[in-house]
Amino acid sequence: MEGENEVDAVALFIKNFKPSNDLVKPDEETLKKISESVLPEEYITLVKEYGFGNYGNGIIKVINPFEYADNLYTWLGQKDSNKLPIMMNAFGDLFYYRIFEDGEEDICSLEIHYKDINVCGIDFEDFVEEYLLDEDTQKCVLRKELFTEALERDGELKLNEIFLFVPALAIGGGENIKYIKKGDAITHQNVLFQLQ
């Protein structure tokens, strides 16, 4: 049954990425836009029941797709309402949902530091179970070790805040705690795009 998978994927996500205490529930207008969009039911349920913000101490963030859509479209080179950002790691890389004309769907990552796009899962359940919980993903994509160091040194991230590399990786920074600072996610995504 479809409803069972939905509950399973959301429950699995919540079990592995504990919601922070300061999640922000969407207002009615945002919830209506999300519900009328192409986004999967699991994401809609997650946002309705829990809200936007930090999960797993901020290693992953559930984001308002409409606040980050323009950045995604800038990176992709065109606006496409069949592609919407749903999550972001603590370092600003976006995870976005896309649905094709034939009804097929997937979730991709936009790695802003390395200017790379990868398919992460064929649906929300696959994205959570097979991708986010994968040891290699936790190590390389979520940068779990570096995240833990930064969290211990700099404290929790705010709603739209990320850990960023200064200088940016593209101009000589490194994936090392000495290059980590906190900053605004949307601003940093725009800055990194300008470095292309």
Automatic annotation (TrEMBL):
Domain GAD-related: 12-97
Domain of life assignment: Eukaryota
InterPro entries documented for this protein: GAD-rel (IPR014983), Knr4/Smi1-like_sf (IPR037883), T6SS_Tdi1_C (IPR015002)
A family per Pfam: T6SS_Tdi1_C
Domain T6SS immunity protein Tdi1 C-terminal: 130-195
Descriptive protein name: Knr4/Smi1-like domain-containing protein
Gene source species: Piromyces sp
